[in-house]
Amino acid sequence: MTDAPWLGDACSLVDAFRSGERAPHEEMEAVLAAVDRSELNAFCFVDPDGARDAAKTADTAAPLGGVPIGVKELDNVTGWPATGASLVFAGEVAQYTGTMVRRLEQAGAAKVGLTTASEFGGLNVSITKAHGVTHNPWQHGRTTGGSSAGSAAAVAGGLVPIATGGDGGGSIRIPAGFCGLVGLKGTAGRIPRGPRTQIAPMTVVIGCMARSVRDVARWYDVCSGFDPRDPYSLPRIDGWERDLGSHDLKGKRVVITPNLGNAMVRPEVEASVRDAAEALARDAGLTVVDVPVDLPGLGFEWVMSNMAQLRNELGDRWPDCKDDMTMQMAFGVELASNVYNLDMAARVEAQRTEANERMAELFDQVDFVISATNPDTAFPAEVAMNTRVGTEKAPPENNGALTIPANIVGNPAISIPVAPVDGLPVGMQVMGRHHEDALLLDLARRVERACPWPLVAPGAPI
Burial of 309 by CB count in 10 Å (0-12 exposed, 13-18 middle, 19+ buried)? Predict the structure, then answer.
């Protein structure tokens, strides 16, 4: 019998299944037992019968045959809770399965349950009224970041080797950076988000929280490609895993700017990222260039415009549901309801056009932009619901400043683990041109081979 879950990556677990070293049904029992005794609060819903059935019938010849996966609770699975991580929708059940999850099922993945997320995916913290605190496996009491909080905790904490994630402003990369994982936000549209795709604000992508670069590549082999229920999804590209390491990087231009021009980054984090970036440039033969980086944020108007979809979801529950929501989300919806108008909508579009132009001008001069993923290491997880941002127990004011620009304009960006600071993970973000996601995977693979990172948090409680 298998006593503990697999602590390698998902690809190596498939190999172990195929060789007979492990058996999918035994692996699932180990996973379910580990989830049950875990104090990370990574899962908010577990489907033990469905998980066991999937493991027993797994085709290990499939790309992810038998691999236990966590599903972020903002993703839909027919018959499972569909709460948006909010008390507002407690008791709601999904009526359909998302395209990405369906493709994972077809590739043999065995769904364990739903992993915790921040409410409606709107905050980069790991605490909600619905589920309480999700803890960072590297240090109990620290945040995993968000919104893919539980997915990051589950993968870094040794519960499952891979899990779904989503990124509308950094929600894959931020927790990847805080938890020592690799996290790719692909070019917008790379993985379809249907059915019933919410188009606006066209910043959200979906993907995975992973332990290794090849796991991300295999995920893209399984999940990417056009689907008519997401009209903005991109045509399929084959060979993500097959072609890892095959792209010519020598001579490509990179600008190393840990603070991305204007964010406040902790000096120790900046030093770790700069050292790793310079080492990567030498290893890959990149040409380091000195190019000014000045990417505008979209500011208050942008935040208000993003409340439109949430207001639509709340429907006639609003405003009576305010007390069931986190203070920040309720405040945002109420403020947007009072101040958002046609003039503000026009300013948002003008600002977005300017952001597109600035990013395009930057990539006229460089091939890659390297920065930190997060301005600091993981902050305290128990962010009080009524604390103000900037106080001792609240997240840094500019958390997300380094990740949001890639969402606004759709560029691919990857967070790669680099040297820790004070025993906590640090992520290095690399942004690239649209559709050049494969080059980012190749750069991450070079870092992974030169300075391998722990696949799970040291001493993870499993």
Answer: middle
